[in-house]
Amino acid sequence: NNNELSVTDRLHEVCILLKENVSYYDWVGFYFKNGDKEELKLRTYAGLETDHEIIPFGKGICGQVALSNENFVVPDVKAQDNYIACSIDVKSEIVIPLFKDGKNIGQIDIDSDTADPFTEKDERFLEFINQEVAKIL
Ligand code: SME
C-alpha cells in the first residue's frame, strides 16, 4: 500500500523509477536545503554511493542551482570548473530546482555516463516530476 510509504521512501521510488526507465539516467538523487544552513543535503538516491552528502551553496553544479534557481544542463562535466565529481564514469549532468510555494527548496540531480544526452524534453519532464513531488512535501 503506497499510502504507508514515508515521503523519503516515495522520493526513493521516484529515483529508482527514473533510473530504471531512462537508459542515460545513471544516478538520480534529491537534494534539499539542510534546515537553516546554506547547504544542500542528499535525501535519497538511486545509483552508486556518493561522498557528497552535503554540498555548500555555490559549490558544484548543485550548489550553483541552489543560488540561481535555474535549470543547469551540463553536456560535458570536464568543461566545468565549478564541478564536484562523484564517479569517474560520469560524463554529463542535469540539475533541476524544486520549488515549493515559489521557493527553491531543493533539486533533482541526474548524472549520466553518456556524453551530451540531455535535451529540453528532459528539462520539461523533470520540471513536471519536481512539481508533482512538491505536492507531497
Ligand atoms: N556533480 C555534482 C555533485 C553531486 S553528485 O553528482 C551526486 C555537482 O557538481 O554539484
Written description of the protein model:
The protein has 137 residues and is of the alpha+beta class. It has one domain: GAF domain (Beta-Lactamase), CATH 3.30.450.40. The chain has helices at 7-21, 60-68, 120-135; strands at residues 27-33, 39-46, 54-56, 72-74, 92-100, 103-112. The chain has a 6-stranded antiparallel β-sheet, with helices on both faces. Strand 2 and strand 3 form a beta hairpin. The longest helix is centred in the C-terminal third of the chain and has 16 residues, at 120-135. The structure holds methionine sulfoxide. Methionine sulfoxide (SME) binds next to strand 1, helix 2 and strand 6.
Write the layout of secondary structure elements.
Elements (H helix, E strand, L loop, with lengths): L6 H15 L5 E7 L5 E8 L7 E3 L3 H9 L3 E3 L17 E9 L2 E10 L7 H16 L2
Antiparallel strand pairs: 1-2, 1-6, 2-3, 4-5, 5-6
This protein binds methionine sulfoxide.
